[in-house]
Amino acid sequence: MSSLPGTVPRMMRPTPGQNYSRSGFPLEVSTPLGQGRVNQLGGVFINGRPLPNHIRHKIVEMAHHGIRPCVISRQLRVSHGCVSKILCRYQETGSIRPGAIGGSKPRQVATPDVEKRVEEYKRDNPGMFSWEIRDKLLKDGVCDRSTVPSGEASSVSSISRVLRARFGKKDDEDECDKKDEDGEKKTKHSIDGILGDKGRPEDTQPGPSSGSLFCRIEIEGDPNVGWR
DNA sequence: TGCGTCACGGTTGAG
DNA sequence: GTCTCAACCGTGACG
User: Is the shortest CB-to-strand distance from A63 to strand C under 7 Å?
Assistant: First the structure.
């Protein structure tokens, strides 16, 4: 198989004259946003951001058809390390979704026991205020003044946080899934958004329709919607 | 030549 | 509103 037009020979180290280091990038795509970059295979990517879902789908789809990772890499112009990583993850988790980027680990503001009680209180009385829950925790002896949920701000806000984590999550996930469906194309940070459709591999590469498998691949709920 | 792995610079978002 | 920091990202190079 011949290399794609514009493809830089693989495994070529940058010479001193080339202005990029081990992880520097040789080219930037001229866009209003100035975020797109071109890898050695001629593919466009945004440094630090996940590949668009349609590329990820395509990688998995081609692998399903028995196409070797190196071929997938060249066809889609995605580094083989990335192809390898995505396929490994797909095998392990069954999901093509990128992991949740950013954020901190949720801080343990209350013991599991206290969280459970807060959950019970809220379930029994959905209209209950955080300060009421705090008072009830004290009153019921679930915790004393030193162990009642307390964060940097206040114990009430800590309880609110517990409530958000317990009761506000489902809606958020639904919202994420919804965003994921159209967010990919709408967002100005997507490669699609930057390049329009000209950068889409389906348009430049012959191959099986991406639509068929799109329906078969299960998309899991994920806090990270990929392209925003 | 193909692939697994890792360092790197970058982005993101909760706290 | 701003900062910090730890999570993740894809690339590119090594073996």
Answer: no
- Which nucleotides on chain B have any atom < 7 A from a protein Cβ? 1-15
Kindly list the distances between the CA atom of residue A8 and the CA atoms of A34, A59, A77, A151, A188, in Å, as whole numbers in the listed order.
22, 21, 11, 53, 28
Taking the CA of residue A89 and the C1' sugar atom of nucleotide B12, their distance in angstroms comes to: 21
| Chain C nucleotides covered by protein, CB below 7 Å | 4-15
pLDDT one digit per residue (tens) for chain A, 228 residues: 433 333 333 333 333 333 344 444 556 665 444 467 899 999 999 988 999 999 999 999 999 999 999 999 999 999 999 999 999 999 888 889 888 888 776 655 566 677 777 777 777 877 777 777 777 777 777 766 656 655 434 466 666 666 666 665 444 444 444 444 444 444 444 445 544 444 344 333 333 333 344 434 444 444 444 444
Complete domains list, chain A, with CATH: 37-93 (1.10.10.10), 112-166 (1.10.10.10)
CA→C1' distance for A20 and B7 (Å): 15
Helices (H), chain A: 53-64, 69-76, 80-93, 112-124, 130-139, 155-167, 169-186, 191-195, 201-204, 210-216
**Residue-wise DSSP of A88-142:** HHHHHHS--PPPPPS--PPP--S-HHHHHHHHHHHHH-TT--HHHHHHHHHHTTS
Q: Which has the closest alpha carbon to A118: A103, A108, A132?
A: A132
